[in-house]
Amino acid sequence: METNMNEKRGTFPADRPIEALTQEHTMVRDLANAYLSSDKADIKRELTPQITSLVEMHSRMEETVFYPAVRNIDSTMISHFEEEHHKVDDLLQTLKGASPDDPQCDQTMRQMLDMVLRHIQEEETQFFPKLERANLDMTDIGLQMQAFEANLVHAAAQSSEQRAR
Ligand SMILES: [Fe+2]
Ligand SMILES: [Fe+2]
């Protein structure tokens, strides 16, 4: 699953950031569906860090690069999205502090996924069409998004390499 995610990330279309964001949303949806449709504890344990790291990376990239670049399209909606990110972050923090065998974990995960799935749906249906209609040249934003994620992926690989030592 991890290789697959990286392969997809390699084709991040820099000049079409909306497509890139939608691709990541699809990855989140796929992982979420796999989690929600499984009743096996070991599968859930394996999926949990994949989901949390993908959601976290996606959120940081949007907050740092994407949202500031497009805030002028609809600042109220962007503020609303940022608030939703904060709520998701709180649940991510709870998940990090919990043991994966804690039954509460599964409930927190479901709550987080429910929130995230609604959030990405809202971004795709309420905001992306608006942004597309604005007809901006998105290449610069796309390149910044790509660079931001490449740095995060690199940093994550380094820290897991250090842990393995
Ligand atoms: Fe978002
Ligand atoms: Fe998003």
Topology:
Elements lengths: L1 H9 L6 H20 L4 H30 L4 H23 L5 H32 L4 H26 L1
Helix pairs in contact: 2-3, 2-5, 3-4, 3-5, 3-6, 4-5
This protein binds fe (ii) ion (2 copies).
Tell me the structural class.
mainly alpha
Question: pLDDT under 50 segments (min length 5)?
Answer: 1-8
The CATH fourth-level homologous superfamily: nmb1532 protein domain like
Assign a percent range to the helix content. Answer: over 70%
For the record, the CATH class is Mainly Alpha
Residues in β-strands, percent: under 5%
Mean pLDDT, all residues: 90
Q: Radius of gyration, rounded?
A: 16 Å
Give the distance, in angstroms, between the N- and C-terminal Cα atoms: 23 Å
- Number of extended strands: 0
Order of helices and strands: HHHHHH
* Known CATH architecture: Up-down Bundle
- Which small-molecule species are bound to the chains here? fe (ii) ion
Q: Compute the number of structural domains.
A: 1
What does this 3D model show about the protein?
The protein has 165 residues and is mostly helical. It is built from 6 helices and no strands. It has helices spanning 2-10, 17-36, 41-70, 75-97, 103-134, 139-164. It is globular, with a radius of gyration of 16 Å. The structure holds fe (ii) ion (2 copies). The site of one fe (ii) ion has 6 residues, from helix 2, helix 3 and helix 5. One fe (ii) ion (FE2) binds at residues 62, 81, 85, 119, 123.
Q: Can you give me a brief rundown of this structure?
A:
The protein is mainly α and 165 residues long.
